[in-house]
Specification:
With about 100 residues, the protein is of the alpha/beta class. The protein has a single domain (about 1-100), classed as STAS domain (Transcription Regulator spoIIAA, 2-Layer Sandwich), CATH 3.30.750.24. Helices cover about 40% and strands about 35% of the residues. Strands 1-2-3-4-5 form a five-stranded mixed β-sheet. The longest helix is centred in the middle third of the chain and has 17 residues, at about 55-70. It is globular.
């Protein structure tokens, strides 16, 4: 799993590439930790190249959402596949995040 973090205008974008499974979740959690400092702004999780998400991955998304809620920011999830959309729908995550194509 690869994570690339960039700043695009007022957004901090984390591009997630590969499978966000349980073995990769610790690495991804550490890679996304610096985003906690930007939780007062807009954080985009770019999932166009993410092929899978486990419950551990969902937990990472949820922790980031909680951090932004406390600081007045927001998390946008961009470009999820139909398979990941189904996981979000079954877990109720579609209602928790702003989802963009």
């Amino acid at each position: 799993m690869e994570v690339i973090i960039t700043t695009e205008g007022s957004e901090t974008v984390a591009q997630l590439i590969g499978r966000l499974d349980t073995p990769a979740s610790q690495e991804v959690s550490e890679a996304l930790a610096p985003l906690q400092d930007k939780a007062d702004g807009t954080i985009v999780l770019d999932c166009r190249q993410m092929s899978y998400i486990s419950s551990s991955g969902l937990r990472i998304f949820l922790m980031l959402r909680k951090a932004t809620a406390v600081k007045g920011g927001k998390v946008i999830v961009r470009g999820i596949s139909n398979d990941i959309r189904n996981v979000f729908m079954m877990t109720g995550f579609l209602n928790l995040f702003q989802i963009e194509p």
